[in-house]
Specification:
2 helices; eight-stranded mixed beta sheet; four-stranded antiparallel beta sheet; mainly beta; single chain; globular; 3% helix
């Protein structure tokens, strides 16, 4: 065992700082070796709590591309690499040159492609019209491509998209209703296809509420990780009855077609307030999730939770990343908000190589302040370009 640990440590990043007693003290992002955390190359910090983000070449958008950047606001970005090596992004885009204040009426799901993961991504077809939002794309073990999202592809509660917009910024008359999570109150809408190019079909998969999940948000902003037999672990909004809109909980299903069974919250009542989870399983079999963290969100917006079994989670108040982006020239670029984290993985699907987030100077209150333009941004992890 000594020789195994030593060899493993050579491929990791030794960190001197806080002492540890077990791997959990290193947030399961490394190992505890001789009372000190030895971080995986993708993580850094005294307790392996920070993503090891490589300085970006620039703060240029991954999406929208340069020819659309003047008039387009996008939000989030979920990227899947195809078998031919091309990168396929599925992203929320606001129609009619609107910004994020109009998201609940103007959001569509857009398909875009690039030859390199950081982009820029070329705009292709609209996968789902308004209202549809917060897509997360993944391939199931049976080979089916899936897009989890919110909305139904119909006007949100009958509200047409706002048209009082210009240059990716919402006009003062734009205001939207609360989000329409799905097509009805008992299912979650999932897009599926045998190809990343589509065509995409829809299924309304049933879910089963728990005492602390499912009301009022149903399955909201879902993210999944699959097991080889086709069953899955999902995280979605809810789970803490005192903070339904700023907590996330565990959901399971035997197959992507459902049924989806809700369980309990990630963390506890003392945990930071979070939303927008992104879940994955690492090469050791541990579970992790990134979040938009409301607690101390400017600048400490990047929440992280970890679990050995997918049900019992530790949700920390450390920051996996912040609202600042450092570029290769040493400049630090600060934003008001950095949200909707997604990861792109290596070929094995367990080691993250790029973090995608939304960057904006839109007010954290969500007010229509004339500054609600946003874009999708990719940043390499672990110092390795792919």
């Amino acid at each position: 065992m000594w020789f195994f640990l030593t060899a493993a440590a050579l491929a990791m990043s030794p960190v001197r700082g806080s002492t540890c007693e077990k791997d959990d003290d290193c947030q399961l992002n490394g190992i505890c070796l001789h009372t000190q955390c030895v971080c995986d190359p993708q993580w850094t910090g005294d307790n392996c709590e920070q993503l090891n983000l490589r300085p970006a070449d620039s703060i240029a958008p991954a999406y929208p591309p340069p020819d659309l950047a003047i008039n387009t606001t996008s939000w989030g970005a979920s990227v899947v690499k195809s078998t031919d090596g091309q990168y396929h992004m599925f992203v929320a885009e606001m129609v009619a040159e609107c910004g994020m204040s109009s998201w609940s009426t103007n959001s569509i799901i857009r398909h875009a492609v690039a030859d390199v993961p950081e982009g820029p991504y070329k705009s292709k077809e609209v996968v789902m019209p308004p209202f549809s939002h917060n897509p997360t794309a993944i391939q199931a073990p049976d080979g089916t491509y899936l897009i989890y999202h919110i909305g139904c592809g119909t006007p949100n509660q009958g509200n047409a998209p706002c048209t009082d917009c210009q240059s990716g910024i919402s006009g003062k008359s734009c205001h939207g209703p609360g989000e329409q999570v799905a097509c009805d109150s008992t299912t979650t809408n999932i897009l599926f296809s045998t190809s990343l190019e589509g065509p995409w079909q829809q299924i309304n998969a049933p879910f089963i509420k728990s005492p602390t999940m499912g009301t009022p948000f149903q399955i909201d902003n879902p993210t999944v990780t699959f097991f080889p037999n086709g069953s899955l672990l999902m995280l979605g909004r809810g789970g803490d009855l005192s903070h339904e809109s700023s907590s996330d909980g565990v959901i399971t299903a035997p197959h992507w077609k459902g049924p989806y069974t809700m369980h309990t919250a990630v963390g506890n009542s003392q945990s930071p307030r979070v939303e927008d989870p992104f879940v994955w399983q690492d090469r050791r079999g541990n579970f992790h999730a990134l979040f938009h963290k409301f607690t101390d969100e400017s600048p400490y917006c990047g929440g992280h939770a970890y679990s050995r079994n997918g049900f019992d989670w530790t949700l920390t108040n450390t920051a996996a990343y912040t609202t600042a982006v450092t570029t290769a020239d040493g400049a630090v670029h600060s934003f008001t908000r950095r949200e909707r984290p997604h990861l792109l993985f290596d070929a094995a699907g367990t080691t993250p190589i790029m973090l995608f987030t939304s960057l904006t100077n839109w007010s954290t209150s969500g007010a229509n302040d004339g500054n609600d333009k946003a874009y999708s941004f990719g940043q390499y992890i672990g110092g390795q370009a792919q």
